[in-house]
Design goal:
Layout (H helix, E strand, L loop, with lengths): L6 H22 L17 E4 L7 E5 L17 H5 L8 H12 L3 E4 L21 E2 L2 E2 L8 H25 L6 E8 L2 E2 L2 E2 L4 E4 L5 H13 L4 E3 L12 H6 L6 E7 L6 H27 L1
Parallel strand pairs: 2-3, 2-6, 6-11, 9-10
Antiparallel strand pairs: 1-3, 4-5, 7-8, 9-11
Helix pairs in contact: 3-7, 5-7
Zinc ion (ZN) binds next to loops.
Length: about 290
């Protein structure tokens, strides 16, 4: 049963949230000696897997986790809300890890919830630290001071993107093609979404066009072309900055969550993606050289 539905539970959440927020504000007001957002014993803000992987493909997973730093409590949300698609991309990290292993590709994953700060939103976007998501108010993101915003940028956003940049910079021995792995909810605002998988791009269509062709050839599932989301500078960060910004062929994969919620489903989609990539890798590398 959802714990936030009764008035009593709501009141409890609000009270608990005020107390967490109060202690965070006190800590933030202590000036240059402010306690870091992440305590030393908390999981890192970014994880790099198989950094020396020999594939030409570099994988990133912007919405891999739904963890919230201890100092921020639960952002005023209940566990079910944080576990829902507004908090992260369920299943995406599992597929990304399997694909990384299958192709011997390096992978960078974010360590905390997109609701703390969204690593795939420009900092100027209202969705960077969303005050509501999917119609759910996020109490812990309301009325933040500049210092509170900056602490999230410094602790989570910057290190994640620095890790991607470092990884790409270090690959002097081989070319890089960039693929970000996301997942999407099967039903949005009451409307079912027909695609099993989507491949999206921004200005650079090279890698997306090849992946779309390979996926369409290799199975009887529905593939969205720039669906359910295109890549746009106003709302995307990772592909515009690390892909287009470096002139690397890049694309975003979106997997429908009902297809990857079990280990078997995630494994099947990782295998399909690996197969599609193997079919088009040589041509993608030629597009990089031309
Ligand atoms: Zn995502």
């Amino acid at each position: 049963m959802k714990s936030g539905v009764s008035p009593g539970a709501d009141a409890h959440h609000a009270q608990a949230w005020r107390s967490v927020r109060g202690s965070a504000l006190m800590a933030a007001d202590t000036g240059p000696t402010t306690v870091p957002l992440l305590a030393a014993d908390e999981p890192p803000c970014v994880e790099t897997v198989n950094a020396d992987g020999r594939s030409s493909l570099v994988l990133v997973c912007d919405h891999a986790a739904n963890r919230v730093p201890r100092r921020l409590g639960s952002l005023g949300l209940d566990a079910l809300q944080l576990a829902d698609h507004i908090g992260w991309d369920p299943g995406a990290a599992d597929v990304a890890r399997r694909l990384s292993a299958e192709l011997d590709a390096p992978l960078v994953l974010s360590g905390y919830s997109r609701l703390v700060i969204d690593c795939n939103r420009p900092l100027r976007s209202a969705e960077s630290i969303a005050e509501q998501s999917g119609g759910v108010p996020v109490p812990g993101n309301r009325g933040l001071s500049p210092g509170e915003r900056q602490s999230r940028i410094d602790a989570l956003f910057r290190p994640y993107h620095a890790a991607i940049a470092r990884l790409l910079d270090a690959r002097t021995e081989r070319p890089s093609l960039l693929l970000s792995i996301h997942s999407f909810t099967p039903v949005l605002n009451g409307r079912p979404r027909p695609w099993h998988i989507g491949v999206s791009c921004g200005r650079d269509r090279r890698l997306a066009a090849l992946m779309l062709g390979a996926l369409a050839r290799s199975g009887d599932f529905s593939v969205g072309d720039n669906q359910p989301y295109p890549i746009e500078d106003a709302i995307d960060y990772t592909i515009p900055v690390h892909g287009e910004g470096r002139g690397l062929p890049s694309a975003m994969i979106e997997l429908r969550q009902d297809g990857i919620q079990t280990a078997a489903g995630a494994a099947a989609w990782a295998a399909r993606l690996a197969q599609a990539y193997r079919l088009i890798e040589a041509e993608a590398l030629r597009s990089l050289a031309s």
